[in-house]
Amino acid sequence: MSQFDPFIAHVQKKIALSDEELTELIAAFTPVKRLGRPEEIAAAALYLASVDSAFMISAELLLDGSIRSL
Fold first, then answer.
1. In sequence order, which residues have a C-beta less than 8 Å from that of residue 46 and are 6 or more positions away?
2. Number of domains in the chain
3. Coil, helix or strand for 61?
4. What InterPro entries does its record include (predicted)?
5. Residue ranges making up the domain that contains 37
6. Which residues of the chain have pLDDT under 70?
7. Is 61 exposed, middle or buried (0-12, 13-18, 19+ CB in 10 A)?
C-alpha cells in the first residue's frame, strides 16, 4: 500500500493575523515559499488510485513543499 502525505497546517488563531497573513507566514517556512494547491493534492491521490501506480509498492509521496527536508 502506498500513501501520500500532504502538508496541512491546522492553527488555532490566538494572534491577530488575517487568514492571508497567516498563510504567508506558514508558506515562508517551506523551501518553495508557498502552500500546496488542492489540485496538486488531488492529482497525487488520483495517481495512487490509478493503474499507473500499480508497480509502486509501499511508497510515500511527500506533498509538503520540501518542508521535511529542512
1. none
2. 1
3. strand
4. NAD(P)-bd_dom_sf, SDR_fam
5. 3-69
6. 1-2, 4, 6-15
7. middle
Give the helix ranges, DSSP H, for the chain. Answer: 19-28, 38-49
- Compute the distance between CA of residue 28 and CA of residue 43 in angstroms, rounded to an integer: 24
What is the DSSP secondary structure assignment for residue 5, as one 8-state letter?
E
Calculate the CA 35 to chain-centre distance: 7
Phi, then psi, of 40 in degrees rounded to 5: -70, -40
Give the Cβ contact number of residue 25 at 10 Å. Answer: 13
Nearest residue to 60 via CA among 20, 1, 12, 9: 1
C-alpha dihedral sign at 38, 4, 10, 66: negative
- Give the per-residue pLDDT at 34: 86
